[in-house]
Amino acid sequence: MRGIDGNKEKVYFVEEGGGWYALDLQTDRLDTLELIDYQTNNPVENDCVLDIHLDQKGFLWGISCNNLQEGQLHKIDPQTGLTETFRFKQRFRAFTQSRNGIFWLLGESNNGDDNQLVSFNPDNQQFKSYSNNKGKSPLEDFTPFYITESKDGWLWIGTNNGLIKVDPQKKSTSKIYQTQPDDEGKGLRSNTIYLIFEDKDGLLWLGTTNGLSVLNPENDHIYTIDQKSGLVNNTVCGIIPDEKDNFWISTFNGLSYYDRDKKEFHNYFHVDGLSNDEFNRFSFYRDVKGRYYFGTVNGINAFHANDLLTGEIIPNIAITKIVRYNTRKDSVFVQYDRLNPIESIKISPYDAYFQLHFMLPKYSDPDRNQFRIWLENYEKDWIYLGNTSYIRYNSLPPGNYTLHIEGADANGNWSAEALKIPITVKKIFYRTAWFWLLIIGVLSGIAYIAFRYQWEQKLQMERFRTKLSSDLHDELSGLLSGIAMQTDMLQMMDQDETTKSRLRHIGEVSRKAMSKMSDVIWSIDSRKDKMGDLLLRMREHADDILLPLNVQYTFEERRIDPSHKIPPTIRQELYLIFKESINNIAKHSNANRVNIMLQNNDGQFLMEIEDNGKGVAKALNGKAIHHSGQGLSNIKMRARRINAKVEILKNQGYTVSLKMRKFA
Predict the structure, then answer these.
(1) What span, in angstroms and rounded, lies between the C-alpha atoms of 584 and 591?
(2) Burial class, 49, CB count within 10 angstroms (exposed 0-12 / middle 13-18 / buried 19+)
(3) Which strands make up the sheet holding 29-32, listed edge to edge?
(4) For residue 622, what pLDDT band results from cuts at 50, 70 and 90?
């Protein structure tokens, strides 16, 4: 069956082979309509009939061909069957009547390279080939399939190579819409267009061979509804809106009902009572009583919506098996038992993929049962699977998910409740929180043991230093002091000058040894590790050396914390540098004033010792003092040991300037 049209009284059908029928809506009686040539009174020869149209005056119009060579436009009086036939040099592929009564027809030439857009004026009964302002046919290089006039007067033509928009008044082809794979939202899914339907909002619904594309002519945005969305088949050939502006859609393999608000499809097939699953182009109509007519390759299907849209209780989804592939064991594991009901699924971090198989316990037409899934926390929305009854996920990120599965029968009646399965994808052990807590605990334990060991070693060293300094002070200092006192007594008792000189030398050596021993004891004594102890020691040495020579000195401290501890090495080297500097002033400077300053400034420690000497050393105890230069070398050597920079300026006196990283 092909074209269908009607009015309040009758519905007219036409077969492709030339059979014409009229259905009386009052009696539901179907009669054959005989076409009689009004001039010869002979039956009208017609073949390859495609479409019919009932105009406002009650005349029935149809297109056919004559011996497969010429196109024929028939004007029929349905009451008498009298027919006028108007022939054109090309076969007609489709036609429509505009609001001003002019017919627009799509002509196809025999060789296919000179297809025409043709107008027919019923008043003067003349055909006219349409050409644009460049003198060319808009159908050049296009095979036409469908034509309609939109509410704003544009002609829209569906072809084998896209959608053409024609302005018949300005004689211009304003736009051609085609596939644009790289431009999402601007291109068609298929260039072959069998149907054009304009809805009440001005949107154009295009039946293509790859789904139902929806075009907004105002912004040229296009989106497509196809089998992935639930449409029964991707080759769309008919659309009829219902009173709720939902659509009945015929295809080359089944009939769909599309609920536009819910975006749901209900699909119907031959097993549901249809005459065939393959529907024809131009063969769709809705009469005044709300009955729908769809032509197939095996007759007409006539029904009311309630005849098919019957609610049915659909059972819930059942799980049939779970398949996993474990990379660690290089094995596939299949689970068949303990699946219904299933509380949760736990996925190992070594599972490269898992596959869930399910079924809908609806057995009337199981091969056409439909499914959709949504993995919460991973997918944004439902995914329509069609008739595929399994889902596979590869390498899901660790986390918690919920898999929702719904099933529907072949007609699109969905299960009342979705099956919900909690899924946990475990983390590999070295990415888990407990593993890192364990690592942190182990490292903390190792750090604590190392700290405790170092602390014990430090305490032992402190105890050893304290004991050693005490032993040296008690034993060696007392012994050296006794030697010095005994030599002094022997000097008073002995009258021999040679002996006295030797005894005097022994006493001096003993006192020097006592002085050096005192420095050593002080440097290793852990009880003297504070900055205040170092400052006190420096003052004592300055008093012992400078005051007997009548040398006045100042000792200034800036931003120094006396309670701060100093590493023993720094304490010893600083003191010896200070001591060597003071000794050099006493021996070589001939100064009467010395300025000593220690300070912390901007992360640095500075020690500066400056005198006002003349460069000529005083005689001490009547003996001249000679300068060997060994003391300055010792100062530089000790400064290097503690990573300090030292400058020694010799003018008439001395200036020793030491800088190092702040330590106190």
Answers:
(1) 11
(2) buried
(3) 4-6, 10-14, 20-24, 29-32
(4) very low
Strands 60-66 and 70-76: antiparallel
User: Residue 512: what pLDDT?
Assistant: 64
Query: What is the band of 620 on the pLDDT scale with cuts at 50, 70, 90?
Result: very low
pLDDT at site 390: 94
C-alpha 19: how far from chain center? 61
- Integer Cα distance of 210 and 228 in angstroms: 11
Instruction: Pick left, alpha or beta for residue 639 (phi over 0 → left; psi -120 to 50 → alpha; otherwise beta).
Output: alpha
How would you classify the pairing of strands 126-130 and 116-121?
antiparallel
- Phi/psi-derived region of residue 661, left when phi > 0, alpha when psi is between -120 and 50, beta in every other case: beta
In angstroms, what CA-CA distances link 428 with 24, 328, 362, 395? 74, 12, 40, 12
Beta pairing partners, 136: none
Q: CB 92: neighbour CB atoms within 10 A?
A: 26
Q: What is the pTM of this model?
A: 0.62
Predicted confidence (pLDDT) per residue in 421-461, tens digit: 999 999 887 767 777 888 888 999 999 888 888 877 766 76
Radius of gyration of the chain (CA): 55
Angle of CA points 616, 617, 619, to nearest 5°: 135
Taking alpha carbons only, the member of 604, 578, 583 closest to residue 523 is: 578
Token pair belonging to 321: 């098996």
Phi, psi angles (nearest 5°) of residue 39: -90, -45
Instruction: Give 53-86 as a DSSP string.
Output: EE-TTS-EEEEEEETTTEEEEEEE-TTT-EEEEE
What separation in angstroms does the CA of 92 have from each of 21, 143, 325? 21, 11, 59
Please give the structure tokens belonging to residue 20.
């014409």
pLDDT recorded at residue 140: 85
pLDDT of 651 reads 72
pLDDT of residue 567: 86
HSE at residue 49, side-chain half, CA atoms within 13 A, is: 25
**Encoding tokens for residue 244?**
């709720």
Query: What percent of the chain shows pLDDT beyond 70?
Result: 87
